[in-house]
Amino acid sequence: MSLLNRQHRVHLSIKDRYIRFVESGKKRKLLAYGQKSLPDGVVVEGQIKDRETLELIMEEMVGQWKLKGKKVSFCVPDSTVVVRKIQVTNEIPDHELKGYLYMELGQSIHLPFEDPILEAIPLGEATGNREVLLFASRETVLNEFTELLKGASLKPDIADLSVLSLYRMYYHLGLAKQDEHVLLVQIGLDALLLSVFNEHKPVFSRHYPLEFHQEHFELSKSRSGSDFYSWMGAQNELKSQSQDITMEIERFLSYYHFNLTKGNHSISKLVLSGDHPCMETFYTDIHTAIEVSVQPLLEPLFQTKKGRNIPPVYAECIGLALK
PANTHER family, from UniProt (predicted)? Predict the structure, then answer.
């Protein structure tokens, strides 16, 4: 491998339905991008269920786009991540914070999985207590994806969250304001992720599964060799799903205002992103129904070094490249 190629990095996102990547070079210049679809049942709710098939697809992807031997940053599956604020006593110093949180598992801290990796960021202090931002992800899932990438002749060295990567891109575009309470809305083929940021930090995140009906979609291949889905279902079925998503967002806005912030704060902006092929329909319905400013990230905002527009579905991968 040449010295020049050693500076190249791969930034990868693995969903239940897709693997996609962006490759970057010197000075974070974006060089290439691509995606492969995953058959039903290969990855389910962020967990590898058919390792053999996934390995074959990864190897095909690495060979097709000449990614062998390159360092990789990747997003941990959203469904295996918890982000929330918690309170701890001021008596716990920063260097003991993580150990304290591990001891509180099953006591004051309850997670939907038993093998968490924890990270914590101290926030503001109050009388007797202080707020801490807790990140938890499943260790077994992280290890499985790390081994998968190593087996495909890649060199994984950074794991991140898709919501942090998306916000990083949003911030890079100069759209973020410190005092806003912004809700990032990520709509996928089979999942909805809602995440709140304030003062450039995540506050809360919630993952919702969406029904996926294979017969409503058609799988095609672009001229560059990337797979993509198109909507083939009836318009009333799409309208029904769009209404369900809009109602879920409205419930979340109310929950954030009345429950999480005790009536003190409201969401001031929505940022809309995702890889569902009907994002424009979702944007129209959300924008019409909700009395909050909506910032769509649905147009190409970045180009490769050779001037090719990078589709907006690669937003999370671009955010990884900006890290």
Answer: CELL DIVISION PROTEIN FTSA-RELATED, ETHANOLAMINE UTILIZATION PROTEIN EUTJ
Same domain, yes or no, for 162 and 220? Answer: yes
Residues of the chain falling short of pLDDT 50: 1-3
Answering whether pTM is above 0.70, one says yes
92 and 153 assigned to the same domain: no
* 226 vs 30: CA distance, rounded Å: 17
Task: For residue range 61-120, list pLDDT tens digits in order.
Answer: 999 999 999 999 999 999 999 999 899 988 898 889 999 999 999 999 999 998 999 999
Residue 288's domain is classified under what CATH number?
3.30.420.40
Same domain assignment for residues 109 and 176 = no
Structural domain containing residue 59:
3-80+138-321
pLDDT value at residue 124: 74
